[in-house]
Amino acid sequence: MRRVLVLGSGFGAFSLAARLDPRRHQVAVVSPRNHFLFTPLLPSAAVGTVEFRTIIEPVRRGRPRLEFRLGTAEAVDLEARRVRCRSADRSATWEEPYDALVVAVGARGNTFGVPGVAEHALFLKELADARRIREALVANLEAASIPGTAPAERERLLHFVVVGGGPTGIRFAAELHDLLARDAPRSYPHLAGLPRITILEAGKEILPAYDESLRRYTARLFRRRRIDVRAGARVEEVGRGFVRLAGGETIPAGLVLWATGFAPVPFVESLPLARDRHGRILVDDALRAQGRPEVYAIGDCARPESAELPQLAQIAEQQGRHLARTIDSPAPFRWRDRGMSTFLGGAEAVASTPGGARAGSRAYWMWRTSVFSQLVSARNKVLVPLDRLRAKVFGRDLSKF
Questions:
Q1: What is the pLDDT, as a whole number, of residue 235?
Q2: Which of 8, 83, 111, 140 qualifies as a cystine partner to 254, CB 3.0-4.6 A?
Q3: Average pLDDT over every residue of 71-75
Q4: 151 contacts: CB under 8 Å, gap ≥ 6
């Protein structure tokens, strides 16, 4: 029986591990989290539209004879075909042997070397990030409600800055607007009209991967909602309570979300494998690392030599499915473009599909349908709509605990 070692528990790794035939493969998974996380709904979890456990699925559930280790991979001995691992609490180390190794460790947020980002900004990659954001939002609303708070300090506390105008930043700003416009006034009527949202994008436009008509639609909609979108705004420093732009302008901020793109994790950077200029592992059409037919890489940490694919969850999921079928008989991977969609708040979205560009309520239902179809279990498919219904009827929970 061939031993397949999978590193990671994201879209690619989870899709692969769930589909490998346990009669032919001994499957082992090493990951710092013991659940799959449906990352497209992280912005929703960060503001309470859905609850944290609603968007996860345990890795072990329903997968016969799967070996799971809670930890991280630290180094690979390619000749001996062994991976050195460390437990999540850092207390133990061990080695995992393999016949086939699948690297699916994803990527981390790219700080671009901007001073203060790691110390003072928040990211949105993991469930713990969403929890920290929700706690910070409520803490700022409560601090702004304390009698005697200076007007300038109240204004700073209620200014939420999103750095990055890609899908993650746009979705978070949309979810945050819904929270501040619909739910916060019920609990904080004295703060009505005071919270502000600013999106800072270093490039010329937000949502650069989308059709121009969709970018314009998003900009107009956000302008009507008084979400300040500033293109060509390059951040040079993030400090405690402020963001400084190139040119010297300082923007007071109560919360800074950093959503500017991806960078390879240190483990990928340490591997003795060929990588592209962004640090991703170069793989052939069958998803194998150069010169190492027993090593595969999928998802955000990999790039096929023949084409630079966008770093999308749907691609990682399709790669996992493909590899589950072909790991014993390698075959070229072909990406099926399902389009892209981004939630804009309320009942609005934009969608770019092979059939054309869509915006507004029709795109919203396309987005809802796409999200529902990608949820990995019956449990998720039940809980996500119920959470949305709860939020709509009773409002998002702004309790601090």
A1: 98
A2: 140
A3: 97
A4: none
Contact 338, 313 (CB under 8 A): no
315 within 8 A of 282, measured Cβ to Cβ: no
State the residue for tokens 């990406």. Answer: 335
Helix (H) or strand (E) holding 257: strand 255-258
Which pair of structure tokens corresponds to residue 74?
């630290």
Beta-carbon contacts of 207 under 8 Å, excluding residues fewer than 6 positions away, are 165, 166, 167, 170, 214, 215, 218, 342, 350
CA 244 to chain centre: 25
What is the per-residue pLDDT across 126-140, written as a single tens digit (0 to 9) for each?
A: 999 999 999 999 999
- How many other β-carbons are positioned within 10 Å of the β-carbon of residue 329? 7
- Asked whether the beta carbons of 231 and 241 are under 8 A apart, the reply is no
Measured CA to CA, the distance from residue 345 to residue 347 in angstroms comes to 6
- Please report, for residues 69, 152, 263, 311, the alpha-carbon distance to residue 163 in angstroms, rounded to integers and kept in the order given: 35, 22, 16, 19
Cα distance from N-terminal residue to C-terminal residue, the chain: 49
